[in-house]
Amino acid sequence: MMNANESKIKKQRILIYIFFGFLTLLSILPFWIVIVNATRTAEQIQQGLSLIPGTNFMENWRILRDGGFNIFQGYGNSFFIAFSSTALSMYFSCLTAYGLTVYDFKLKRPAYLLIMFMIMLPPQVNIIGFYRFMVNLGLLNSYIPLIVPAAASAPTVFFMKQYLQTIYHPALVDSARIDGASELKIFHSIVLPLMRPAIATMSIFGFVQSWNNFLMPLMLINDRSRFTLPMLVQLLTTDTYTTQYGSLYLGISMSIIPLILIYLFLSKHIIGGVTAGGVKM
Amino acid sequence: MLKKKLGVTIGALSTLVILSSCGNQGAVGTDGGDDSLVVWSFTDEIEDIINNYYLEDYSDLDYDIDIVQFPTEEFERILDPLIGTGDEPDVILMEQNFAKKYIDSGYLTDLEQFEGIREGSQSTYDYVKEVGSQEDGTLVANAWQAAPGAFFYRYSLAEEYLGVSEPEDVQALISDWDGFVDTARQIRDASDGEVYMIASVDDLRFAFLGGREQGWVVDDELVIDDLAYELLETALEMNEENLLLDAPASGAAYFAGMSNDEIFGYSLPTWGLNFWLEPNGGEATAGDWRMVQGPSTYFRGGTWVGISESSEMKEEAAHLIEYATTDQDFLERWANDTGDIVSNEDVVEEVRGDYSNDFLGGQNHYAEFADMIDDIEAGFVTEFDQTINDLFLDHALTPYSKGEVEFDTAIRNFRQSVSNLFPYIEVGLD
Amino acid sequence: MQATTEQSGKKRKLAKIKNTNKFGYWFILPFFIVFAGFNLYPTLYTLYLAFVDISGFNFEGNFIGFQNFSYLVTNNLFLQASYNTMLLWVINFIPQIGLALLLAYWFTNYQLKLRAQGFFKSVFYFPNIITAASVAVIFFTLFDYPRGPVNMILMQTGVLEAPFDFFRSAFATRSIVAFIQFWMWYGQTSIVLTAGILSIDKSLYEAAVIDGATAWQTFRRITLPLLKPITLYVLITSLVGGLQMFDIPRLLTDGGPNNSVETLMTYIFRQAIEGGRNVSIAAAASVYLLILTIILSAIIFFLIRDKSEREA
């Protein structure tokens, strides 16, 4: 009886692993095909599918570059925006979370309720007004509209506050207060270091989210040298590359490789962050 | 104390961000600084003209020329938001399909105030100036090129399947659309379906639509010319009878037909010869092409150049435009180097006499093109062309020619789609 | 004497802490300044734009009341876009939540004791971090006609005799868009649900095991009912995200064929950028979207508030 049950579970387990194997293929195969095709000639790609890399990488690279696909500039621009907005978002979210956790003031509850309400409001819903406002301010082509709004990220504040509530205790800061340290100094020297784990988790998500942002830069940036990576990817769909399959695939590959690398090193943190919940990318 | 420190920190952080983004902008912004003439283009021809001709002749300019190129499909989306903000590039290149939008916007500079352009454009073809003028007749954009359209065919394929091969004989066969379709059938039957008359509906689209007398929109009303209806029927007929390959326009298969023996011919304008046929035909078919007028008189494309009203380098910009569109020495060199039909009548008359193109088996296509220019009517060019042409292709021509929808549905979908993007246009739906 | 000093010291400390409370305003001020400038004002500005008639190269418009709003409710493309947005969400969410529940059930099944869970979770989540724009272009090339990889595979294996033009078929294009959404999000959903299951009180399961319940029975009778709030949370976040769908339909077929994957966001973008550049119509459509999102957000808001207040 017990044995029959055991073997049934064993069978089940094997089937599940096979199914997991299938899902694993589904996750990886599309990217693998793209990366392999980045090393093949247009003719080879037209002739059939291969899972083994070819030898045409350099030629594809040459065609891609000659078409004006300045990937390194794109990396630079995307990195600058993602890094700045993440740094801003982390700092001010911790600041806000700290303000809402430690102090008691009249507008604390309304402020917190407002932030919680905004968690679910995606920034796109007011994009038309946002866009026209930026045009009026002369901020078209500037990175300011892509970076500064990150300082008011409701989901990050919410996450930081949840975290802070679990680690904060008045005793932590009392002695520093008695020593006469300013409130801001206390925040910088005592609280901020304690929040490092939460910052690490949220930074990854903030960075990836900003890096992947397409609609906002698409509307706001029209200076080619300031294009972000997803905008360069969009250029790949235009006529310039329609017949150059190898370089088209190479362009896509180069746009996703940084993220694949990030994921290889940080997937544990990322999964941890998702598990901790409250994370919506 | 806290107030101050917090203020300082916030101030420092935002300054940092603002500085770093502005710092970037200063170096590469659309204004390009004070001593740089910013040129926005969708075609790399202007780079050739500026670097290999203009800067050779004027090597002592005390400013830089900054050429920024975008894919044609993206050009309007990227330029539009800047129009009227004062941050426009100095020099704007415009394709026929969307030129009118900017020409009629009121944000381009009157070119006739510059003596050189005013005089130089005396011998520019009328249709070129008509497109480049605002509704009130003010010239705000000029072009270096005229783009009459023709039909290019393969000499050897004509000989094999039609029994005639010389341009005048082939032209006699395809001088109207009935003849064109009959000839296509003849080629299909003689080749057992191996050879198609044309590669794509685009070879019909421009030849039909480029010959209309009225534009898509007249007095805020959508006008569907009889030629557009004929285009739909012809495309369906040719597709159903396997007379065209139905390759996606400007795709791999479309260009591949220029070097294999699968396609009999292409409807292309002047620039199609230099930019598409020669590079894609390559060694395989060089010398085997000939050019005829085909069933219709039309023009397709062309590049107009204007100066933004907000430019602070108008004189410098005008100098460039005067050179690129009216300088007869340059235009003659350009014509001889590229085979392009230029916009200047005097130069064309000068060049046409003893022109011979090896790719066309020694044919003097220049003279033939030159004759076609006089028949060109530019009255159908409107500010709506890029969008409405695309809508017509997506909602009527493509689905109808593939047999996906009925005729009435195609027309209704097209009218509806125009109304969706231009609510104020009366599209003729109930 | 000593006692007094101590007492007054304590008093002083307390007073000081009380005094610091007003600093809370300074700490949250930057957030609200940025919020006001980059969020609240643009939202109000969107509202203003929706009541005027700005289009083309114009910067100024006339007040026209609710005309843009009434135009939209009778406009076939806007209605089509609303329908598509919902349809695409439904056909991606149902299989997504189904598979995610199944995976969560397996991950937490005490009889199965699956190994390498961390690895599989990472792999299933992986597509989610890849740029949606890149993903769209990848699927566009994979399903290319006539000689893209998918057509090649289907022809080599004999499933198809002639290549199939996926992006000329409304059904195929919608399926591909929905599949991409499903594929990018089922990993995330299954991880969230797994975490939800693991947070359920263990003693409930122990009792069930003692009663001789099978794993499936405990899952159906205990886990599923207790998982309701978190499932609702997943559903609404997914719906709010689904309402914003833009990158993938835009870069895959730009809404085609025949507007079959035109979504609310691609519609808004198109109105603002293409054709007559009808900014005010785009703004009015955004306001509809905003209202819808606010309703959904309100639901989530009460869910989270209840939860966090219970915890507090």
From TrEMBL, chain A:
Keyword Transmembrane helix: yes
The keyword Cell wall biogenesis/degradation appears for this protein: no
Transmembrane segments: 14-35, 79-100, 112-131, 143-160, 186-208, 248-266
Subcellular location: Cell membrane
Sequence ranges assigned to domain ABC transmembrane type-1 in this UniProt record: 75-266
Keywords carried by this UniProt record: Cell membrane, Membrane, Transmembrane, Transmembrane helix, Transport
GO cellular component terms listed in the entry, alphabetical order: plasma membrane
SUPFAM superfamilies found in the cross-reference section: MetI-like
Signal peptide: none
CDD domains membership: TM_PBP2
Membrane topology term: Multi-pass membrane protein
Matching Pfam families: BPD_transp_1
Biological process annotations from GO: transmembrane transport
InterPro entries registered for this protein in UniProt: MetI-like (IPR000515), MetI-like_sf (IPR035906)
PANTHER family cross-referenced by the UniProt entry: ABC TRANSPORTER PERMEASE PROTEIN MG189-RELATED-RELATED (PTHR43744), ARABINOOLIGOSACCHARIDES TRANSPORT SYSTEM PERMEASE PROTEIN ARAQ (PTHR43744:SF2)
Family the UniProt entry places it in: Belongs to the binding-protein-dependent transport system permease family.
Name of the protein described by the UniProt record: ABC-type glycerol-3-phosphate transport system, permease component
TrEMBL record, chain B:
InterPro entries documented for this protein: Bact_solute-bd_prot1, SBP
PANTHER family: ARABINOSE-BINDING PROTEIN-RELATED, POLYGALACTURONAN_RHAMNOGALACTURONAN-BINDING PROTEIN YTCQ
Superkingdom of origin: Bacteria
Alphabetical list of Gene3D superfamilies matching this protein: Periplasmic binding protein-like II (3.40.190.10)
Signal peptide span: 1-26
Protein name in UniProt: ABC-type glycerol-3-phosphate transport system, substrate-binding protein
Keywords linked to the UniProt accession: Cell membrane, Lipoprotein, Membrane, Palmitate, Signal
SUPFAM superfamilies given in the database record: Periplasmic binding protein-like II
Record-linked Pfam families: SBP_bac_8
Keyword presence, Disulfide bond: no
PROSITE patterns xrefs: PROKAR_LIPOPROTEIN (PS51257)
TrEMBL record, chain C:
One of the Pfam families matching this protein, by short name: BPD_transp_1
All residue ranges annotated as the ABC transmembrane type-1 domain in the record: 82-300
GO BP terms in the entry: transmembrane transport
GO cellular component: plasma membrane
Chief location bin: membrane
Family matches, as InterPro entries: ABC_transporter_permease, MetI-like, MetI-like_sf
Transmembrane segments: 23-41, 86-107, 119-146, 226-246, 279-304
Compartments, as annotated in UniProt: Cell membrane
Membrane topology label: Multi-pass membrane protein
Keywords: Cell membrane, Membrane, Transmembrane, Transmembrane helix, Transport
UniProt record similarity statement: Belongs to the binding-protein-dependent transport system permease family.
Protein name: Carbohydrate ABC transporter membrane protein 1, CUT1 family
